[in-house]
Design brief:
Strand content: 25-35%
CATH topology of the largest domain: Rossmann fold
Distance between the termini: 54 Å
Oligomer: single chain
Largest sheet: 15 strands, mixed
Number of helices: 16
Helix content: 25-40%
CATH superfamily of the largest domain: Vaccinia Virus protein VP39
Length: 567
């Protein structure tokens, strides 16, 4: 059975969970070890997987020996595909490669473990909690479950507290509850009043709130572990969560039949704003705010650019790109004697909050940074003026941990580099509307730029073709255009008819890499392009990581391409 295009996002998640299944296999393995350490086993156990999503964990529990596994979640494309898999053992899904280009994959699961898994639809936010509990207790065929798992489900629920109550009530006497969480609450999904911990400066942590709400169950302090969960969004982009897994045990005689009330005190956001723990929410007051103008987004990008930390083992992206551009300039931009040209003039487009510009100033004489976002430009100017970057990293809930980096002391960027960064300016890259005086300078060979860098830019422009048609006019005769992009085309950023790649035309998949060649190369096949470049170096992947919260990240491969002007 092949699923409709409208369901592909959910099916990408399902396919990723089964193809990149290490996290689920590790979860089952650690659960088995945890149970064994307490003289228990999954063999013959009845298990409940709450917020089952793709069902990968439920099937893993059955394969590990559970005699009965009930998987439960709200109805949706992902659970529909899971049910198809349960019925027939196979489902055809699609992995997103780029834009609207997908690769078909078949997900299969053999008997007999599949026969031990059933699906029960629940809607915790809409149904009475007591009714959900009774429905799932009936599905257990007894008085509850030996093992209940709630893995990465709280943060996706519109009522996390009710979901935790369901989990608590369905663990039978002597049973075990495994809860995996990141604490990355989102007020667009559930209001803060329904979060489990992490609300306000004086509120309990997620772990402490769980311990309170799950009473009289006992928390096994020595049994907690961290687990990296990777979901493939596209061929180049993954979402990464470092999930904290906690174990709770319901002792003999501690069984409660009913809905728990009380628990940790419901706190509000009134405690937020104290030093070091400011609440950082994604909602903005008043009219709709463009994504890259949001305060929360500025904070995320300041962290990406200026954090001295190495996140997920990946080098800082703007720094790596600037070093790459410096190496390319030394190799390809030569003076009359054949040596590296001095006095280089560099323009960065879509530069975010400025790290590339400061790093490029190590080898260039003059650097201009730019972005379309006024908030990004303001932040970059602030760093240039003060020599300090300050931001916050979202911890559990809306709490924010303050971070700070000095350009000189922490990043080795001195006064000379700051001076060589002439300014950060707001530029629409589709129009290349530089300030009049600077624009006039680029019309002369002496005033044109030696190198223009567009980092993760091309797939975020409303009209990328317009940019490509104009950008060559600002380069010297042998100047370099260096682009990097993961090619994650989105229709709310770029109208579909403006995509230069990532779609099918007359049944043929058009990839962005090949579309760039057709548009830019002298012998390119697309007459709409400037066709005044040669491809100076083969494409190269440069990884980057965006930290959304202390436990959630985006890890992406951006493809670097190098184009040298020939006329």
């Amino acid at each position: 059975m092949e699923l409709a295009l409208a369901e592909k996002t959910a099916c990408d998640s399902l396919a990723s969970n089964f193809i990149d299944s290490e996290a689920y296999e590790a979860f089952v393995k650690k659960s088995v070890e945890d149970l064994k350490s307490r003289g228990k086993s999954l063999e013959g156990a009845r298990a409940l997987d709450l917020s089952c999503g793709s069902g990968r964990l439920a099937l893993g529990l059955a394969e590990a020996g559970c005699s009965k596994v009930v998987a439960s979640d709200a109805a949706g494309p992902e659970t529909a595909a899971f049910q198809t898999l349960l019925r027939g053992g196979i489902v055809s899904v699609s992995l997103q490669i780029e834009g609207e280009i997908f690769e078909k994959r078949e997900v299969t699961w053999k008997k007999p473990s599949r026969d031990r898994v059933s699906f029960v639809e629940i809607r915790v936010a809409e149904e009475e909690t007591a009714g959900v509990i009774e429905k799932l207790r009936t599905a257990s065929g007894g008085d509850g479950y030996d093992v209940v798992t709630l893995f990465c489900g709280m943060e996706k629920s519109r009522d996390p507290k009710a979901l935790v109550e369901v989990a608590r009530s369905l663990v039978r006497q002597g049973g075990t509850l495994f809860i995996g969480y990141t604490g990355a609450w989102n007020d667009r999904i559930a209001p803060a009043s329904k979060w489990v911990g992490g609300v306000g400066a004086g509120g309990p942590t997620v772990g402490a709130a769980l311990e309170s709400r799950l009473s009289p169950m006992g928390r096994c302090e020595e049994s907690g572990w961290d687990l990296e969960v990777v979901v493939r969004d596209t061929a180049r982009k993954t979402s990464v969560a470092v999930v904290r897994v906690e174990t709770f045990v319901k002792a003999e005689g501690a069984y409660t039949n009913g809905v728990k009330t009380g628990g940790e005190e419901d706190v509000t956001m009134s405690g937020a704003g104290e030093a070091g723990t400011e609440t950082l929410q994604w909602k903005e007051e008043g009219e709709k705010v463009a994504m890259y103008e949001r305060t929360a987004m500025v904070q995320v990008y300041l962290d990406m650019h200026f954090s001295p930390e190495t996140l997920l083992g990946v080098e800082n992206f703007p720094k790596a790109c600037a070093r790459e551009c410096g190496d390319l300039a030394r190799e390809l931009l030569l003076d009359s004697s054949g040596g590296p040209r001095g006095g280089l003039r560099v323009l960065e487009l879509g530069g975010g909050v400025g790290r590339f510009a400061f790093e490029a100033a190590r080898w260039a004489s003059e650097v201009w940074g730019s972005d379309y976002s006024e908030a990004f430009v303001k932040a970059a100017r602030g760093v240039k003026e003060t020599g300090v970057a300050e931001w916050g990293v979202v911890k559990a809930g809306g709490l924010r941990e303050e971070k700070r980096a000095c350009l000189k002391e922490d990043l080795g960027i001195g006064e000379a580099e700051r001076e060589r960064v002439k300014d950060f300016i707001r530029v629409d890259a589709t129009k290349l509307d530089l300030p009049p005086s600077l624009l006039e300078e680029t019309k002369t060979e002496a005033g044109a730029f030696d190198l223009i860098f567009g980092g993760n830019l091309i797939d975020r422009l409303p009209d990328p073709l317009s940019f490509l048609q104009k950008v060559g006019g600002m380069l010297k005769k042998d100047g370099l255009l260096v682009l990097s992009s993961p090619y994650t085309w989105l229709s709310d950023m770029t109208p579909r008819e403006k995509w230069i790649g990532g779609r099918e035309v007359d049944g043929k998949a058009i990839r962005t890499e090949s579309a760039l060649r057709d548009l830019l190369l002298k012998e390119g096949g697309d007459a709409r392009g400037p066709r005044c470049f040669v491809e100076a170096r083969p494409p190269k992947n440069i990884a980057f990581v965006i930290r959304e919260s202390e436990r959630t990240f985006q890890r992406t491969q951006s493809q670097r391409t190098v184009w040298q002007k020939t006329q």
